[in-house]
Amino acid sequence: MKDQVLSVKQMQRLMELGVDVSKASMCYVFFESDGSKYADIVVHDESCYEMACMNPMPTFTLQDMINLMPNNVKYEGKSYYLSIDKKFVGYIDDMDVEDCVLESESNILENTYKVLVWLAEHKYI
After folding, report:
1. How far apart, in whole angstroms, are the C-alpha atoms of residue 80 and residue 31?
2. Distances (CA, A) of 105 to 49, 64, 112
3. Which of 2, 64, 77, 111 could serve as a FRET partner for 70 with CA atoms 20 to 30 Å apart?
4. 44-60 core/surface letters (b: 16 or more CB in 10 A; e: else)
5. What b/e string do you get for 65-79 counting C-beta neighbours within 10 Å, with b at 16 or more?
6. Residues 6+ apart with CB under 8 A from 62
7. Could you tell me what percentage of the chain is helix, strand and coil, using 3-state DSSP and rounding each to the nearest 5?
8. Predicted confidence (pLDDT) per residue in 41-73, tens digit
9. How much is the pTM?
10. How far is 95 from 69, CA to CA, in rounded Å?
11. Distance of CA 51 to CAs 31, 45, 61, 118, Å?
């Protein structure tokens, strides 16, 4: 499951950038048992906050991030449109096929996170 959600470090970065994480669909919970620390991922709902000792931390899935992304952005006077494929995530210009921001590594979760960071840094979200 951990490969389907953002890491704690990634979520902390998004929160530092002011991204609203309240709509995250999953949540890390942390607890101790027999002196060992464990982390688990559960559905992000009221029950994960009922036990404050578990220090819940919301985390995004791929779909959560896509839901936050605007369909288009204006950057440097041009309009760019969200484009998502198996290999890349980014904003492209329909006319010239120029990219405003484009990530194309093999991991779509990581690519989407990087674009989300760019959007937050440029105050689009």
Report:
1. 44
2. 35, 20, 10
3. 2
4. beeebeeeeebebbbbb
5. bbebbeeebeeeeee
6. 4, 108, 109, 112
7. 30, 35, 35
8. 777 776 666 655 667 889 999 999 999 999 999
9. 0.84
10. 21
11. 10, 12, 23, 34
